[in-house]
UniProtKB/TrEMBL annotation:
Native species: Duganella aquatilis
InterPro entries: MFS, MFS_trans_sf
Keyword Membrane in record: yes
Main localization category: membrane
GO MF entry, a single one: transmembrane transporter activity
Cell compartments where the protein resides: Cell membrane
Protein name (database record): MFS transporter
Pfam families: MFS_1
Length: 430
């Protein structure tokens, strides 16, 4: 760590990461609140989340191919500039929609465009799709930057620092966003400031990234393999590894039925309790719990391993389901925050264990494709769950959605334990 702190590339990357992560958390709070403020529709909220997530999932493999063909730094810079432009447009849209009923199209034109809530929502759909598309290229380029900028012996420590910073941002970012929206009264000015801060964060992180110098010893980029052939090889690798296949199938089912539910249900729960500040409070509690869970996993590691890897996954999911079920029955923000803190604790602990298991099990030359498939499970299937949750909330109360989602997760974990070999999966390498 002492040598890592002296590395100029790491310091520039860490500075950019801190400001960018805080900005991302601002948008995560402001965008759902904007949609609910405009429409009050849970279906519209689910569609916005889906429009951000679907292009990110569909095009992430193409983004990885472009990273192989061109410099990861170049692709990441372009994605940051694209995000900055889209967020600037979103901030201007919010301000204009609230400030005046019409916006002139030009001095020489007599036409005007009325920014009604319906039209504003359509423009938000377009911008959300664009943000998701930019992220499809930013995620693979961002994960490919560190090996080109740091010596190999520093990668593990650097990854640990960056993952910790991400969790800290999940604590500090929602609190900052909640404070900003509370001071502004949750109106357009506060929302525009949140989007503007995220826009500025992308510009600042792009500048810090420009200061990063790839290592002179970094290997030149080889000619990329055909995207379809590369993806096929990765899928065959996952399918042939039976424990990996069982876990990936189980995670796919859980993500499809449960994964996006919380993305829609938590903002609605916050709206029912107090408002935008409550949403930030709940997300901060989850971020704090995740950070604590990661700390426990990093500190104690295998000493807390009380069962096989497969049994531990299923048991943790069952406990998570029992924590999700009562969320719709709470009547105070602190009660929801306590449940979110507990869920975050499980999330952080399992995230470290799952990533370590995959990294130890998959061959290095297949790691990128294995992780791409792993990310696709959550980025590709969770949006379908989010859209379905938004639709379901038009038919059933929020409490029934939480209870049903929690019980489904418990039943999935129990069925996997009783009827599949997942309980026999160990932490040993393939």
């Amino acid at each position: 760590m002492s040598a890592l702190r002296q590395n100029a590339n790491f310091k520039w990357m860490m500075r950019g990461s801190v400001i960018s992560l805080l900005g991302d958390q601002m948008t995560m709070i402001a965008l759902p609140w904007l949609v609910l403020r405009l429409t009050g529709s849970t279906l519209a909220l689910g569609l916005v989340i889906a429009l951000m997530s679907i292009p990110r999932a569909v095009f992430i493999l193409l983004g990885g191919a472009l990273v192989d063909r061109y410099s990861p730094k170049r692709v990441l810079m372009l994605s940051k500039y694209a995000n900055a432009v889209l967020l600037a447009l979103l901030a201007l849209l919010v301000m204009n929609a609230d400030a005046a009923p019409t916006v002139p199209l030009g001095e020489s034109l007599s036409l005007t465009i009325a920014l009604t809530p319906q039209l504003t929502l359509r423009l938000i759909y377009v911008l959300a799709f664009g943000i998701g598309l930019a992220q499809a290229f930013g995620i693979p380029s961002g994960t490919s930057m560190m090996p080109l900028a740091l010596p190999r012996e520093h990668l593990q420590a650097a990854n640990g620092v960056m993952m910790g910073l991400r969790q800290v941002s999940m604590l500090a970012g929602p609190l900052l966003a909640a404070g900003l929206l509370a001071v502004a009264g949750g109106d357009a000015r506060g929302l525009a400031l949140a989007f503007g801060f995220d826009c500025l964060s992308f510009l600042v992180s792009a500048w810090t990234l420009s200061r990063v110098r790839p290592l002179a010893t970094a290997a030149p980029q080889s000619a990329p393999q055909s995207v379809l052939r590369s993806v096929g090889a990765g899928l065959r690798m996952v399918w042939d590894d039976v424990p990996l296949r069982q876990c990936f199938i189980y995670w796919s089912i859980v993500s499809l039925f449960i994964g996006g539910t919380m993305q829609v249900a938590i903002p609605v729960l916050a709206s029912d309790l107090h408002g935008a500040s409550t949403l930030g409070f709940l997300m901060a509690a989850h971020g704090l719990g995740t950070l604590m869970g990661m700390g426990v996993a990093a500190k104690f590691g295998a000493r807390l391993r009380f069962a096989s890897f497969g049994v531990m996954i299923l048991l943790m999911d069952a406990v998570a389901g029992l924590l999700v079920a009562p969320l719709g029955l709470v009547h105070a923000a602190w009660q929801a925050a306590a449940l979110m803190l507990s869920l975050g604790l499980l999330t952080g602990y399992m995230q470290i264990n799952v990533f370590t298991w995959i990294q130890r099990r998959v061959a290095p030359q297949m790691m990128g494709r294995a992780m791409s498939i792993f990310m696709f499970i959550f980025m590709g299937l969770a949006p379908l769950s989010a859209a379905s949750a938004g639709w379901l909330l038009t038919l059933i109360p929020l409490s029934q959605l939480f209870i049903g989602g929690g019980m489904i997760l418990v039943l999935f974990a129990a069925a996997a334990y009783l009827f599949t070999p997942m309980r026999n999966i160990t932490s040993t390498t393939a």
